[in-house]
Write a structure and sequence with these properties.
Blueprint: E1 5-15, H1 24-28, H2 33-37, E2 43-50, E3 56-64, E4 67-79, E5 82-93, E6 96-110, E7 116-126, H3 128-136, H4 141-175, E8 180-182, E9 185-187
Antiparallel strand pairs: 1-7, 2-3, 3-4, 4-5, 5-6, 6-7, 8-9
């Protein structure tokens, strides 16, 4: 484990859609707030914008372990089957506000022509600001880590199948063309 790593958790779920129909960045950067909230009771709000350098950014607000987090996920890798986002996230605790570094990686790989395996990997590291924040409170990083890991891991484990289902729905919507019959004519 890296010196300032707090949590690294990795979970998988099945997506019942062909890999050609999946576009993780398109899903992420158009995810509605309602859809995001449906993936976890801890999810409060979601939106998307651009970072000052023009890169796409997903904004997520959630509560993990009693702390409100505002995540500013900037795209660092954006392929249809692999998305890496990086955030210096604001964390609001009873002791005050600080920041934490979060790396969020979403990936799919084909299992066969109709199904994929989705991987949701989240890694958090202490920023220098965070280290000073817990040091002022007399909390060693290993103590904080041991308390934070179960909550973060449980959160990731619970949201992964819901993210997979949401990506599956997006893949089905993007691959569908409605055919409507109107007065004997077919229209797509």
């Amino acid at each position: 484990m890296e010196d300032h790593e707090i949590v690294s958790s990795n979970f998988t779920a099945i997506i019942n859609a062909p890999i050609d129909g999946i576009d993780i960045p398109a899903w992420c950067f158009t995810l509605s707030e309602e859809e995001y909230q449906g993936c976890s009771p801890a999810h409060i709000a979601a939106g998307f914008t651009t970072a000052p350098d023009g890169k796409r950014m997903s904004i997520n607000v959630e509560i993990i372990g009693g702390s409100l987090m505002v995540q500013h996920y900037v795209e660092t890798l954006g392929r249809k089957d692999h998305l890496v986002l990086e955030s210096i996230s604001d964390v609001f605790t009873p002791a005050g506000r600080t920041t934490i570094h979060v790396l969020w990686e979403l990936r799919v790989k084909a299992l066969d022509s109709r199904t994929c395996e989705f991987t949701n990997h989240v890694r958090t590291k202490a920023t220098d600001e965070f280290m000073k924040f817990i040091d002022r409170q007399g909390i060693p990083l290993d103590v904080f880590r041991s308390q934070r890991q179960p909550m973060s891991i449980a959160h990731n484990k619970s949201e992964t199948p819901f993210f997979a289902a949401s990506i599956e729905r997006a893949a089905r919507r993007s691959g569908q063309t409605e055919t409507v019959v109107v007065a004997g004519q077919r229209r797509a």
